[in-house]
Here is the input.
Amino acid sequence: MSEIRALIEQLIAAGVDPIEAAEVVARAAIHGAANAPKQRSAGAIRQERYRRNKASQVTESDGCDAGDEPSSPEGSSPTPPSPKPQ
Here is the structure.
């Protein structure tokens, strides 16, 4: 509260009416509080960190979509395995 009092006293010393000085300081305080950044909850911060981490783990293929070629049951080899002798 002492900062507000000091501001009002400075305005009064500059020749502003005491009531008007108090109103100016009050309006400035309200305006500052309305434009102050909102505090985010710990859950919101944690969720943002989770989403950022998850997005960084996404891998991009080399320009082809996963649905372009049928997947082989043995893995990612495009040629079928050779038959095993019995």
Summary: The CA atoms of residues 3 and 24 lie 14 Å apart.
